[in-house]
Amino acid sequence: MRSVIPILTVVAAILVVWYGASVWMNSQWTLDQAARNNQTVTFSQILTDTMAQKRPKLPAPHQVAEGLWQGVFGQAITSKRSLVYHAWVTLSATLLGFAIGTGLGVLLAVGIVHNRAMDMSVMPWAIASQTIPILAIAPMVIVVMASVGITGLLPKSIISAYLSFFPVVVGMVKGFRSPDGMQLDLLKTYSASRSQTFWKLRFPASMPYFFTSLKIAAAAALVGAIVGEMPTGAVAGLGARLLSGSYYGQTVMIWAALFMAAIVAAVLVGAIGALQAVTLRRMGMRQ
Amino acid sequence: MKDTASPAQTVIEARNLGLTFSTNDGPVHALKDVNLTIEKGDFVSFIGPSGCGKTTFLRAIAALEHPTEGTLSVNGMTPDEARKSRAYGYVFQAAGLYPWRTIAGNIRLPLEIMGFDRAEQVRRVEEVLDLVDLGGFGKKFPWQLSGGMQQRASIARALAFDAEILLMDEPFGALDEIVRDRLNEELLKLWARTGKTIGFVTHSIPEAVYLSTRIVVMSPRPGRITDVIESPLPKDRPLDIRDSSAFIEVAHRVRDGLRAGHSYD
Q1: Taking 60 as the threshold, does the pLDDT of residue B177 lie above it?
Q2: pLDDT > 50? residue B2
Q3: Is the CB of residue A183 less than 8 Å away from at least one CB of chain B?
Q4: Which of A91, B106, B196, B252 is least enclosed, having the fewest CB within 10 Å?
Q5: Same structural domain for residues B118 and B145?
Q6: Which pLDDT value is given to residue B5?
Q7: 3-class secondary structure for chain A?
Q8: Contact A200 B113 (CB under 8 A)
Q9: Domain check: are B223 and B262 in the same one?
Q10: How does pLDDT run across B42-94, given as a tens digit for each residue?
Q11: Does B79 lie in the same domain as B176?
Q12: Chain B interface disruption, residue of A186, A211, A280, most B CBs within 10 A
């Protein structure tokens, strides 16, 4: 109960600022319209008008909520206007990309920890890969893959994986190296092999790092999938929804899609958090 | 009780042993001209100030460090061979139990690595848990146990695979004195029951004198042995033996050895 009050306070503060900004940003249009018709408007007229414009600069919270509600519950989920449909398109690419990225990240981390050449060479490339703006790469990935006949889910997933492998590499290298010298010496006194050291010590020791990396990777994968939908003029997915919203000045649509993306991200991270809690408790690492 | 019939048998032998670490600040002589023979069933303590090489010597016996001069043999083999033949169990300063394994799971760790079969693992875990008085605690996780109990579990882990030598590197250094006294008493009982050869590194003079049949006094820069003291104390040692004059005399000699080896330059 005690944690609810601060959260509600923050939410209330955001709503107040948001409504204020809506009035302020949308009032220009109201005033222009009135000037064109040689009318004067009172403050209360401005207030009501800014709350209910068709294409507001900044839609008011209740407009976004309504757009979200309409998008989720107002149509059949198979409809092209359903946010559930678009979210699913994006989510499927996200999940595939997340799986590829996580797998790749873990493999690279295993290599870095066990092979000196990889240790010296991989990390700089991994870091360099993240300094390249994803927006610059995404169209190339899509175009190149389309030219060899691969379209649909996979190109978007590759972009997702491109963003999500990095936190996993960094986190898992740290996790695999988290056992201290004493713990490694102990296994040495048993003449343990490298694979035994990995499975008995490094792997279980890396679990807390693993889940933390996964949370970051999941959010990055979602961003990747959305970005992957933008440059291609894709017709489905949250990214496509954002794009068409901006083409047609449908700000409510953009904001509704943004919130949908946030909800999807929250669900993903929440699911990983639950998995983390269960796993670590099973491992006896939660007290 | 033991060793009355059989002649003394050399377990660890160091001849002119030297070990030099090369660091960025130049070579560091961790050990120099160390000569020592440890016989089967001995309880040998290594005592000296920080940097005297006592831990390095123990680690060299365990093949965790490699000497740069002289010879070192364990059970008549090189330390590396001895390790592969499971000659010793090593107890570190911290218990170092894996938090994701139960106490039984931690003790099973060396047995899994060494390929004991399942039934044998269970049998041995039960056996050594009883040996260190932790019977019934097998299913607990490490954080559910006190520091002293954790260190006992780590001793059980070192005993699980029947190594004849037990190497202990300041195992009770992090524990308070009350717990430490109890564990010292229990360690002596364990030693009497199992007849292991024990190498024990410590900072504490009373601990060294109370536990050992022989006390090796070391001094730093370069790490070397300044005195080896044969303890005149009987094998059966109640805690209050520490008030006896024999005990105080030995402690005095250890202190003298430490002072002699330590030049304040």
Answers
A1: yes
A2: no
A3: yes
A4: B252
A5: yes
A6: 46
A7: CCCHHHHHHHHHHHHHHHHHHHHHHHHHHHHHHHHHCCCCCCHHHHHHHHCCCCCCCCCCHHHHHHHHHHHHHCCCCCCCCCHHHHHHHHHHHHHHHHHHHHHHHHHHHHHHHHCHHHHHHHHHHHHHHHHCCHHHHHHHHHHHHHHCCCCCHHHHHHHHHHHHHHHHHHHHHHHHCCCCHHHHHHHHHCCCCHHHHHHHHHHHHCHHHHHHHHHHHHHHHHHHHHHHHCCCCCCCCHHHHHHHHHHCCCHHHHHHHHHHHHHHHHHHHHHHHHHHHHHHHHCCCCC
A8: yes
A9: yes
A10: 999 999 888 888 899 999 999 999 999 888 989 888 998 988 888 899 999 88
A11: yes
A12: A186
Chain-chain contact of A191 with B83 (C-beta, under 8 angstroms): yes
Q: Is A201 helix (H, G, I), strand (E, B) or coil?
A: helix
Looking at B105, B132, B162, which one is the last position of a domain?
B162
How many beta-carbon contacts under 8 Å exist across A and B? 49
Domain boundaries, chain A: 4-58, 83-282
CATH number at A83-282: 1.10.3720.10
Which residue type does B88 have? Y
A13-39 residue pLDDT tens: 999 999 999 999 988 888 888 888 888
Strands (E), B84-172: 88-91, 165-169
Q: What is the pLDDT of residues A169-200, one digit of tens each?
A: 999 999 999 999 999 999 999 999 999 999 99
Asked whether the beta carbons of A49 and A56 are under 8 A apart, the reply is no
Same domain flag for B215 and B263: yes
B92 Cβ under 8 Å from any chain A Cβ: yes
Same domain as B83, residue B3: yes
Is residue B141 located within the same domain as residue B218?
no
| Cβ within 8 Å of B, A 194-223 | 196, 200-201, 204-205, 207
Q: Is the pLDDT of residue A138 over 90?
A: no
Domain boundary among B110, B137, B162: B162
Residues B92-120 have a mean pLDDT of: 92
Quick check: B82 and B75 in contact, CB under 8 A? yes
CA-nearest residue of chain B to A200? Answer: B109
Instruction: Give the count of domains, chain B.
Output: 2
User: For residue B68, what is the domain's CATH number?
Assistant: 3.40.50.300
Task: Report pLDDT for B6.
Answer: 52
Whether B149 shows a pLDDT value over 70: the answer reads yes
Q: Which residue has the tokens 């679990």?
A: A207
Q: For residue B99, what are the domain limits? A: 94-162
Residues B79, B187: one domain? yes
Query: pLDDT per residue over B3-39, tens digit each?
Result: 444 556 888 988 888 898 888 888 888 888 888 999 8
Answer yes or no: do B84 and A191 touch at CB < 8 A. yes
**ipTM of this model?**
0.86
Contacts of A196 in chain B (CB under 8 A): 113
